[in-house]
Amino acid sequence: MEIERKYLVRRLPDDLSKYEAKKIAQGYLCTDPVVRIRRSNDNYYMTYKGDGLMVREEYNLPLTREAYEHLLPKIDGLLIAKTRYLIPLTDRLTAELDVFEGVLSALTLVEVEFDSVEEANAFVPPEWFGEDVTESGKYHNSYLSQHGLD
To answer: Taking the complete model, does pTM exceed 0.85, yes or no?
Structure first.
Protein backbone atom coordinates (compact mmCIF):
# COMPACT_ATOMS: atom_id res chain seq x y z
CA MET A 1 0.00 0.00 0.00
CA GLU A 2 1.29 3.44 -0.92
CA ILE A 3 0.20 6.42 1.19
CA GLU A 4 1.59 9.71 -0.09
CA ARG A 5 0.86 13.39 -0.39
CA LYS A 6 1.97 15.40 -3.41
CA TYR A 7 2.70 19.13 -3.70
CA LEU A 8 3.76 21.65 -6.28
CA VAL A 9 7.00 23.38 -5.29
CA ARG A 10 7.04 27.04 -4.22
CA ARG A 11 10.84 27.25 -4.39
CA LEU A 12 13.68 24.76 -4.65
CA PRO A 13 15.71 24.08 -1.51
CA ASP A 14 19.23 25.50 -1.44
CA ASP A 15 22.14 23.43 -2.77
CA LEU A 16 20.38 20.39 -4.21
CA SER A 17 23.78 18.84 -4.96
CA LYS A 18 24.17 17.87 -1.29
CA TYR A 19 21.23 15.41 -1.50
CA GLU A 20 21.12 11.92 -2.93
CA ALA A 21 19.72 12.01 -6.46
CA LYS A 22 18.34 9.44 -8.88
CA LYS A 23 18.02 9.79 -12.64
CA ILE A 24 14.65 8.31 -13.54
CA ALA A 25 13.08 7.41 -16.89
CA GLN A 26 9.64 5.85 -16.83
CA GLY A 27 6.92 4.94 -19.27
CA TYR A 28 3.47 3.44 -19.07
CA LEU A 29 2.40 0.20 -20.72
CA CYS A 30 -1.14 0.83 -19.48
CA THR A 31 -2.80 3.63 -17.49
CA ASP A 32 -5.99 1.82 -16.39
CA PRO A 33 -4.80 -0.03 -14.41
CA VAL A 34 -1.43 1.68 -14.14
CA VAL A 35 1.45 -0.53 -15.30
CA ARG A 36 4.75 1.32 -15.45
CA ILE A 37 8.33 0.48 -16.31
CA ARG A 38 11.08 2.52 -14.68
CA ARG A 39 14.83 2.94 -14.79
CA SER A 40 16.17 4.50 -11.60
CA ASN A 41 19.92 4.97 -12.02
CA ASP A 42 20.96 1.36 -12.80
CA ASN A 43 17.89 -0.36 -11.33
CA TYR A 44 14.87 -1.43 -13.37
CA TYR A 45 11.29 -2.14 -12.26
CA MET A 46 7.79 -2.86 -13.45
CA THR A 47 5.13 -1.38 -11.16
CA TYR A 48 1.41 -1.96 -10.86
CA LYS A 49 -0.60 0.80 -9.13
CA GLY A 50 -4.23 0.48 -8.13
CA ASP A 51 -6.90 3.18 -8.14
CA GLY A 52 -6.79 6.05 -5.68
CA LEU A 53 -5.15 9.38 -4.99
CA MET A 54 -3.54 9.55 -1.52
CA VAL A 55 -3.86 5.80 -0.83
CA ARG A 56 -3.49 3.04 -3.40
CA GLU A 57 -2.05 -0.40 -3.92
CA GLU A 58 1.44 -0.60 -5.37
CA TYR A 59 3.49 -3.64 -6.37
CA ASN A 60 7.05 -3.47 -7.71
CA LEU A 61 8.73 -6.25 -9.65
CA PRO A 62 12.42 -6.13 -10.54
CA LEU A 63 13.36 -6.16 -14.21
CA THR A 64 16.66 -6.74 -15.95
CA ARG A 65 18.04 -3.97 -18.13
CA GLU A 66 17.31 -6.15 -21.16
CA ALA A 67 13.66 -6.64 -20.13
CA TYR A 68 13.26 -2.88 -19.55
CA GLU A 69 14.77 -2.08 -22.97
CA HIS A 70 12.53 -4.72 -24.61
CA LEU A 71 9.40 -3.13 -23.08
CA LEU A 72 10.47 0.49 -23.69
CA PRO A 73 9.22 0.69 -27.32
CA LYS A 74 5.83 -0.58 -26.13
CA ILE A 75 5.05 2.37 -23.84
CA ASP A 76 1.97 4.46 -24.55
CA GLY A 77 2.61 8.21 -24.36
CA LEU A 78 5.61 10.20 -23.15
CA LEU A 79 8.73 8.70 -21.64
CA ILE A 80 9.01 10.77 -18.47
CA ALA A 81 12.52 11.83 -17.49
CA LYS A 82 13.31 13.47 -14.16
CA THR A 83 15.86 13.82 -11.43
CA ARG A 84 14.58 12.80 -8.01
CA TYR A 85 16.28 14.37 -4.99
CA LEU A 86 15.83 12.63 -1.62
CA ILE A 87 15.61 15.33 1.04
CA PRO A 88 15.32 14.23 4.69
CA LEU A 89 12.53 16.04 6.56
CA THR A 90 12.59 14.11 9.86
CA ASP A 91 14.22 10.92 11.06
CA ARG A 92 11.40 8.98 9.29
CA LEU A 93 10.12 11.23 6.49
CA THR A 94 11.82 12.03 3.22
CA ALA A 95 10.73 14.53 0.58
CA GLU A 96 11.08 13.11 -2.93
CA LEU A 97 11.62 16.18 -5.09
CA ASP A 98 11.07 15.53 -8.81
CA VAL A 99 12.61 17.98 -11.28
CA PHE A 100 11.19 17.04 -14.68
CA GLU A 101 12.97 17.27 -18.04
CA GLY A 102 11.89 17.73 -21.64
CA VAL A 103 8.30 18.78 -22.35
CA LEU A 104 7.52 18.57 -18.61
CA SER A 105 10.46 20.76 -17.56
CA ALA A 106 8.13 23.51 -16.30
CA LEU A 107 6.91 21.12 -13.58
CA THR A 108 8.49 20.42 -10.20
CA LEU A 109 6.68 18.18 -7.71
CA VAL A 110 7.47 16.89 -4.24
CA GLU A 111 5.98 13.78 -2.61
CA VAL A 112 6.15 12.42 0.92
CA GLU A 113 5.25 8.81 1.75
CA PHE A 114 3.68 7.88 5.08
CA ASP A 115 3.05 4.77 7.17
CA SER A 116 -0.60 5.64 7.85
CA VAL A 117 -3.44 7.84 6.63
CA GLU A 118 -3.49 9.54 10.04
CA GLU A 119 0.19 10.46 9.71
CA ALA A 120 -0.42 11.78 6.17
CA ASN A 121 -3.37 13.89 7.33
CA ALA A 122 -1.38 15.34 10.26
CA PHE A 123 1.62 16.30 8.09
CA VAL A 124 2.57 19.99 8.06
CA PRO A 125 4.70 20.68 4.97
CA PRO A 126 7.83 22.83 5.03
CA GLU A 127 7.44 26.36 3.69
CA TRP A 128 9.21 25.55 0.41
CA PHE A 129 6.36 23.19 -0.51
CA GLY A 130 3.60 24.79 -2.56
CA GLU A 131 0.00 23.86 -3.27
CA ASP A 132 -1.17 20.41 -2.10
CA VAL A 133 -2.19 18.53 -5.28
CA THR A 134 -2.66 15.11 -3.68
CA GLU A 135 -6.33 14.96 -4.67
CA SER A 136 -5.69 15.99 -8.29
CA GLY A 137 -5.14 13.06 -10.63
CA LYS A 138 -3.68 15.42 -13.24
CA TYR A 139 -0.35 15.34 -11.38
CA HIS A 140 -0.03 11.55 -11.48
CA ASN A 141 2.84 10.62 -13.76
CA SER A 142 0.53 8.24 -15.65
CA TYR A 143 -1.75 11.20 -16.49
CA LEU A 144 1.22 13.40 -17.42
CA SER A 145 2.49 10.67 -19.78
CA GLN A 146 -0.77 10.88 -21.74
CA HIS A 147 -1.64 14.59 -21.51
CA GLY A 148 1.54 16.49 -20.67
CA LEU A 149 0.90 19.71 -18.80
CA ASP A 150 -2.23 20.50 -20.87
So the answer is: yes
